[in-house]
Write a structure and sequence with these properties.
This protein is mainly α. It has helices at about 5-20, 25-35, 35-50, 55-60, 70-80, 85-130, 145-170, 175-185, 185-210, 215-225, 230, 235-245, 250-255, 260-270, 275-335; strands spanning about 140, 140-145.
């Protein structure tokens, strides 16, 4: 998959060129010529498809998942609304903010993660050393010694890999909408996920309506652009209501999924007759909320990791105290009280 930085730069360049009036075929030809490696191979596919008159979004879908689904979906919205240049520049800004939030998150938990890795390494070495001195004991149910040390490191590695794969699976919706629903009920994490999804949805809906697109098609593209499996599960309900000539706020409310404040603001925008402008402001508001929630989430994650490190260290200290100090003393006292010579 394309790196975030390459995606940001590509969006900036193509969006700026299209806004300047450069022909789309020439834009993709220049991008292909000036790129290299895997990116050039994918851009060559897009160049060929665009040259034959195919939409850019369809061409991107034929690159083997090289471009993020949300990016491709928003490009489709931009083409359908005739505002591909604006969409690409907005996507560049979106991914730039996303990268900043990720950077701030990992920077915030970097030191606690280093401490956690150090604590895991210390316990692994402790298991090895205790086995070398002939101690007969178990730590976390693992026998001391070289074999136990290897089992400890393998177990920790498997837990880390399982956690990473699970996060990717949840983010991509492999388990359906229910896990995302559960995640969205977690106070801070849920607010962050909800705000990010609604920001994309409202922005996409504003562009679609501003272009005069069919209402059902606009709702369909917007919900898909949210890239949230839970909200996408309401697609049939929302589009079905719109097909029955119900207004947007009624259709979204009838699904029973979307938050009440979003539906209320959508209703106010429709009544005021300035739906697009109101939705663009609402999209910015949700994006600001997501940034705030992400900062709080970073602080919570930092505390959780530090507590985990302290827990591991405290366990190791008490284990050493009871097994290497108290246990020998108790054994000696029992031996002396037994009256054996």
């Amino acid at each position: 998959m394309i790196s975030t930085r390459s995606l940001i730069n590509l969006s900036h360049r193509v969006g700026t060129a299209l806004r300047s009036g450069v022909d789309a075929r020439r834009v993709w030809e220049m991008e292909t010529r000036h790129s290299s490696g895997p990116l050039r191979e994918r851009l060559e596919i897009i160049r060929q498809k665009v040259a034959t008159g195919e939409p850019v979004a369809d061409a991107m879908r034929q690159t083997g998942g090289y471009f993020p689904p949300m990016f491709v979906q928003m490009v489709e919205v931009g083409e359908a609304t005739g505002k591909l240049d604006e969409v690409l520049l907005r996507l560049a800004e979106h991914y730039e903010h996303q990268q900043q939030m990720k950077r701030a998150f990992w920077f915030g938990i970097a030191w606690p993660m280093v401490e956690l890795v150090f604590a895991v390494a210390v316990i692994g070495l402790l298991i090895l050393i205790l086995g070398m001195i002939g101690a007969d004991a178990r730590i976390f149910g693992i026998p001391v010694g070289a074999t136990g040390s290897i089992l400890w490191f393998l177990g920790c590695a498997l837990v880390a890999v399982a956690f990473g794969v699970s996060c990717q699976a949840l983010a991509r919706g492999w388990f359906g909408p229910r896990p995302v629903l559960l995640a969205m009920k977690i106070p801070v994490l849920g607010r962050c996920l909800e705000s990010l999804a609604l920001s994309r949805l409202t922005w996409s809906l504003a562009l679609s309506l501003d272009s005069g697109m069919d209402a059902r098609r606009a709702a369909e593209l917007s919900i898909k652009a949210a890239q949230n499996p839970y909200y996408e599960s309401a697609l049939a309900s929302v589009t079905g209501s719109i097909r029955k000539n119900r207004e947007f706020h009624e259709s979204f409310r009838d699904s029973g999924i979307f938050p009440e404040d979003f539906v209320n603001q959508l209703e106010a925008a429709e009544i005021a007759g300035a739906t697009s402008e109101s939705l663009l402001r609402l999209a910015k508001e949700y994006e600001d909320r997501a940034r705030t929630a992400m900062r709080v989430l970073t602080a919570i994650a930092t505390v959780v990791v530090m507590l985990l490190v302290f827990g591991v260290i405290i366990f190791a200290i008490f284990w050493l105290f009871f097994n290497l100090y108290m246990k020998p003393i108790n054994d000696m006292l029992e031996w002396s009280q037994s009256g054996r010579p």
